[in-house]
Design a protein that fits this description.
Elements lengths: L3 E3 L2 H14 L3 H14 L15 E3 H4 L4 H12 L5 H25 L6 H13 L3
Antiparallel strand pairs: 1-2
Helix pairs in contact: 1-5, 2-5
Protein name: DndE family protein
Pfam families: DndE (PF08870)
InterPro entries: DNA_S_DndE, DndE_sf
């Protein structure tokens, strides 16, 4: 079972851009990326990306909610995930795919700041604020 993962270079670049703009650290951005990715209807199984980005620790991504994250990823995959599939494989895939979705949300949010991003995420999540 792994306790570290390496994001793609693109995810690293996205997290650096977002971090500079909205002052969120990679561990917080990872959580948002996973949340956006699991909402996608596209199957994550065949998603491919490099490993030239940030090294993230499992404990900083999932923390005390590791079991909940695992359940969410298993539900999304519609199958039981082995320890190695869950972390780092599927977690990395969701972070990398979700980072792309997150930067798109940020770029098209009003104000291009944390408040605009949150409003954009909330609006999509339940129809309105």
């Amino acid at each position: 079972m792994g306790f570290r993962l390496k994001t793609s270079k693109q995810t690293k670049d996205i997290f650096e851009e977002l971090g500079a703009s909205i002052n969120l650290k990679p561990f917080a951005l990872s959580k948002l990326a996973i949340a956006l990715s699991i909402q996608s209807e596209e199957d994550i199984k065949d998603y491919k990306s490099d490993v030239n980005g940030l090294e993230l620790q499992r404990s900083t991504i999932t923390g005390q909610y590791d079991t909940i994250y695992r359940c969410l990823l298993e539900q999304n995959a519609n199958k039981h995930l082995t320890d190695d599939e869950y972390f780092p494989e599927y977690t990395k895939k969701h972070i990398d795919r979700g980072a792309k979705l997150l930067i798109d949300k940020f770029k098209y949010s009003s104000g291009k700041n944390l408040e605009g991003l949150i409003k954009s995420l909330l609006k999509e999540g339940n129809g309105d604020l």
